[in-house]
Design a protein that fits this description.
CATH class: Mainly Beta
CATH architecture: 3 Solenoid
Number of domains: 1
Number of strands: 26
Radius of gyration: 24 Å
CATH topology: Pectate Lyase C-like
Number of helices: 5
Helix content: 10-25%
Distance between the termini: 32 Å
Shape: elongated
Strand content: over 45%
Length: about 350
């Protein structure tokens, strides 16, 4: 019952609630940003597709060139709009700023494009690029709707350090080897070919990380979306979701932790010798598709689901079964040399260990 209680606490902690202490602890920065920007976001974006008066659209494009060097820091802050960062061929960093406005007529659109500004602050080895909307009082006094999005298309040297904070929009980072931190409230986060990822998080969206060689630990999470990692090398991986699935495919990692409340958890590939895998869900299935010959010790527990294994496990202690259907719901023992450790739990789902 302690495991069940753990997942209930996880759900309460991850679901954002206005003024909730649990959310403030898990997502302190994004909750503060979301609270401050809520009026802007609701006015600017939630109604834009429903407003029949906004028939005129115009786009304004500008490009800034930044001299950050090979390993400078670029911090991007946005309210609504996608952000894409790719590897540049040279040593300069370019930021294409794409502002798109929709309004009643050409004058309305032109006025909105002027009111939304992008501030670029550059100093030795660092640049901050921030989207600035008019203050809430000015917006309320002068117009009912404010439909402007700002997208950033960035090309930076491979060693650039990237920090991204967004409210509404997708984030995509490709082939950047410097430190990467990418957080959004509503949108997907996709990182490919990176070297050091400090964080990859969203509240409403999917987190996907692929082909990454990470020196240390990686923490990734979503509240209402999936967390997917493919071909990732790291010392430690921590993934969590409330209503989404978690999938690990071809990892090389000493410590793996995955927790979902109502989604499934899947691990595909070979275990690392002496690795530890802590995988669990409250109401979803936990399924391992194992390849290679690494042995493991296993402790698997499902309160109301089935526990099955394709491997010849030497049992340890008493193995309990469900009284209603006669299926095993606890499995404890060793396969092979027992070098890896599997700690698998679910409350109402099944646990399956298959040969790949």
């Amino acid at each position: 019952m302690m495991k069940a209680f753990t997942y209930i606490v996880l759900a309460a902690a991850l679901v954002p609630a206005a003024g909730g202490a649990a959310s403030a602890q898990v997502y302190p920065d994004r909750v503060r940003i979301a609270t401050k920007a809520r009026a802007v976001v609701e006015s600017a974006y939630q109604r834009r597709n429903r407003d029949d008066n906004n028939r005129e659209e115009n786009t304004e494009r500008t490009t800034r060139t930044l001299k950050l060097g090979a390993d400078g820091l670029l911090a991007l802050g946005n309210i609504a709009g996608d952000i894409a960062v790719t590897r540049a061929s040279g040593q300069e960093t370019t930021v294409e700023i794409v502002k798109t406005a929709r309004g009643r007529d050409a004058n309305d659109v032109r006025e909105m494009l002027q009111l939304v500004q992008v501030e670029v602050t550059e100093r030795a080895g660092r640049a901050d690029v921030r989207t600035r909307y008019p203050r809430n009082e000015e917006q309320r006094n002068n117009r009912r709707n404010f439909n402007v999005s700002v997208a950033y298309n960035v090309a930076a040297p491979a060693g650039t350090r990237i920090s991204i904070e967004s409210i509404s929009g997708n984030i995509k980072v490709t082939d950047i080897k410097g430190d990467v931190s990418a957080n959004t409230v509503s949108g997907d986060v996709r990182i490919t070919g990176s070297g050091r990822i400090n964080a990859a998080k969203t509240i409403s969206g999917t987190v996907e990380i692929a082909d990454a060689q990470i020196d240390g630990a990686l923490e990734s999470s979503s509240v209402s979306g999936d967390v997917i990692m493919r071909r990732v090398t790291a010392r430690r991986l921590d993934a969590s979701s409330v209503s989404g699935n978690i999938k690990f495919d071809d990892l090389n990692c000493d410590r793996v932790s995955a927790k979902s409340v109502s989604g499934s958890v899947a691990f595909v590939g070979a275990l690392v010798k002496n690795g530890r895998y802590d995988l669990g869900s409250f109401s979803g299935e936990v399924h391992l598709y194992l390849s290679g010959g690494t042995g493991f010790e296993i402790d698997a527990n499902s309160s109301s689901g089935d526990v099955r294994s394709d491997f010849d496990i030497v049992m340890r202690g008493a193995q309990t079964t469900n009284r209603r259907n006669g299926r095993r719901n606890v499995l404890s023992g060793t396969f092979g040399d027992g070098s890896a450790v599997l700690d698998l739990t679910t409350f109402s789902g099944s646990i399956i260990i298959s040969k790949r």
